[in-house]
Design a protein that fits this description.
It is built from 6 helices and 14 strands. The protein is of the alpha+beta class and 284 residues long. It has one domain: Gcn5-related N-acetyltransferase (GNAT) (Aminopeptidase). Strands 2, 3, 4, 5, 6, 7, 8, 11, 12 and 13 form a 10-stranded mixed β-sheet that branches.
Length: 284
């Protein structure tokens, strides 16, 4: 069935950001809550949500999760995380944004572990395509980024949450100074399709688009997409810009900050009136 969503209703979930330890945090984010314990609790909940969603989808096996059901990846600990938090404080959706500056190479990225990177036919093309995107980021004076860890609880999949989190990722990248980046997106639940609608594009090498592929580890078809935070799709640009102006109002939980940083009062996710979003339909 094809569903057309107006995306005009007020958001019921609040957004919380987790900032990596030692990472640059713009001064515009004034609602900071520092503390490794608090950060660790939120991150553990993100990993549990991912574990529960991925296990139900058949994307991982129970043996790939921790004893308490968490899906843990190394990049979790040097990345930003965007959390959609429900009224009871439960995480209902999340995405991971890794903002990389300085000398970045293909072997520093999670995409090196993908099936496509290990494929005899396409592995070298993937490496070359990603390296060309890294060069493009350096020429622009922008960071290189890798987005992943996207998970939405089943009851929220046919709502605006997935689209809002994806657009908020663009906005976060802009606030941090801009980026050129990649994401490995599943075709399950139309995740790759949603990302394409807001500006994701196929990686190319030598004038040829890299194909989608079946990943036996996650047991679904995947795509490696490229994106530029300064160039969201024209249909979404106005909404991304409006989100960029609202994002500094949300709560940011920081793993560790310098001692002179100002601490905000006890954490209460702040309601944010997100702009109405464009009409987008997809098949479920």
């Amino acid at each position: 069935m094809t569903l057309l969503h107006s995306f005009g209703d007020r958001i019921h979930n609040e957004l919380v950001l987790l900032a990596p330890a030692g990472g640059f945090i713009p001064e515009s984010f004034t609602r900071r809550y520092a503390g490794p314990d608090r950060h660790a609790r939120w991150l553990s909940e993100v990993q549990r949500v991912r574990g529960r969603v991925y296990l139900a989808d058949g994307a991982v096996q129970a043996s790939q999760l921790t004893a308490d059901g968490r899906h843990v990846q190394r990049s979790d600990y040097d990345s930003w995380h965007l959390l959609a938090v429900g009224g009871n404080g439960e995480v209902q959706g999340c995405a991971r944004y890794r903002h990389l500056t300085g000398n970045v190479g293909f072997d520093d990225l999670g995409v090196r572990e993908s099936w496509l990177a290990k494929c005899d036919q396409w592995g070298l093309s993937l490496r070359a395509a990603v390296e060309s995107e890294i060069v493009r980021a350096k020429q622009r004076g922008a960071a290189f980024s890798e987005v992943g860890g996207w998970a939405i609880v089943p009851e929220k999949r046919c709502t605006i949450e997935a689209l809002r989190i994806a657009m908020a990722t663009y906005s976060l990248a802009q606030i941090l100074g801009g980026c050129v980046g990649i994401t490995t997106a599943t075709e399950r639940h139309r995740s790759a399709s949603i990302l394409r609608r807001i500006g994701g594009r196929s990686l190319q090498y030598g004038g040829t688009e890299l194909p989608s592929y079946y990943d036996p580890q996650y047991r679904c078809r995947m795509e490696v997409l490229r994106f530029d935070s300064s160039a969201p799709d024209a249909s979404c640009r106005r909404w991304v810009e409006q989100m960029s102006s609202q994002l500094p109002e949300v709560s940011v939980v920081v793993a560790r900050e310098p001692a002179e940083s100002l601490y905000a009062p006890p954490l209460q996710p702040m309601p944010v009136t997100w702009p109405s979003l464009p009409q987008i339909g997809w098949v479920t």
